[in-house]
Design goal:
This protein is of the alpha+beta class and 273 residues long. The chain has 2 domains: 9-33 and 177-271, Helix Hairpins (Orthogonal Bundle), CATH 1.10.287.1490; 45-154. Helices cover 74% and strands 9% of the residues. It contains 6 helices and 6 strands; from the N terminus they run H-H-E-E-H-H-E-E-H-E-E-H. The strands form 2 sheets. The protein has a 4-stranded mixed sheet with strand order 4-3-6-5. It has a two-stranded antiparallel ribbon with strand order 1-2. The radius of gyration is 40 Å and the shape is rod-shaped. The mean pLDDT is 93.
Length: 273
């Protein structure tokens, strides 16, 4: 059996750059739907907030309804007392007793008036609170102004949420096959890269927001950092004899020709997924 061919530095650079291209493509796929889950969560939170607000208003309405019921009972009780006092006045023995009963009747009539006033106030408050739920309109400068209620806002947000969920579902369905294929390809590549390089690559990926750990030389500068690479170092990178990192960012550097070749190969694969 022949000896397994030892991997050259160039082979390692190509593997690393291929992995970078695939990982960047996966990042791109995730970014296309990146904002949608957050938007959906915001909408769900807003709808929940509106429902809690409606529940609080409904509780306030119930309090007013209980107030009305309590006042109506008070009115009924006052009317019973007035009838009783009127009957007692027919059998009084002197004017003092008659006056005392008259004062009781007057007091109960005032109680009825007070209860009626509280009922009107409660009904007005119920109407005001219901307007917050159902909405209302009013005239301003000769024009009708419509104020949307919580029910309408919830309905609109739920419709918007349904559209966003459909959009996310369609997007995930569209990219699911491609993403799974790329993850599988990336996993296969990672098995071919020596652990030391892979650890460095993963560390660099985490350090940069754009996830670029391996970059090519473009117009004499390192991609991602744009610091000029000395000419002597550029020549050394083109020889592909050792792995060189950008002294400013720590990213692994590859020459433009190698990058173009691997991009062409990877783009063809991406197009055929």
């Amino acid at each position: 059996m022949g000896k397994t061919k030892e991997m050259t530095v160039e082979d390692k650079l190509r593997l690393l750059y291929d992995l970078q291209l695939i990982d960047s493509k996966i990042d791109e796929i995730k970014n296309t739907r990146g904002e949608l889950p957050l938007e959906i969560q915001d909408m769900e939170d807003e709808i929940q907030g509106l429902r809690i607000r409606k529940e609080k208003i409904q509780n306030a309405i119930d309090i007013q309804k209980n107030e009305i019921a309590k006042r109506k009972i008070a009115i009924d009780e006052a009317k019973i007392l007035i009838d009783r006092y009127n009957e007692q006045q027919k059998n009084v023995r002197n004017s003092r007793e008659y006056e005392a009963l008259s004062k009781e009747i007057e007091y109960q009539e005032l109680e009825i008036q007070f209860a009626d006033k509280k009922i009107r106030e409660a009904n007005n408050e119920i109407e005001r609170l219901n307007q917050k739920i159902t909405g209302y309109s009013y005239e301003k400068d000769g024009n009708e102004v419509v104020v949307k209620g919580i029910d309408e806002l919830i309905k609109q947000r739920e419709e918007d949420l349904a559209h966003k969920r459909e959009e996310l579902s369609a997007l995930m369905k569209e990219t699911e096959k491609q993403e799974k294929f790329l993850i599988k390809k990336a996993s296969a590549l990672r098995k071919k890269i020596e652990p030391r390089l892979l650890r460095a690559y993963d560390r660099l990926r985490k350090n940069f927001k754009n996830g670029l750990a391996v970059v090519s030389i473009e117009h004499g500068s390192a991609g991602g950092s744009y610091f000029t690479i000395p000419v002597q170092q550029q020549l050394e990178i083109r020889t592909r004899q050792k792995i060189i990192v950008d002294e400013h960012s720590g990213r692994i550097l590859v020459d433009g020709d190698l990058a173009s070749e691997e991009k062409e190969k990877m783009n063809e694969m991406f197009d055929n997924i």
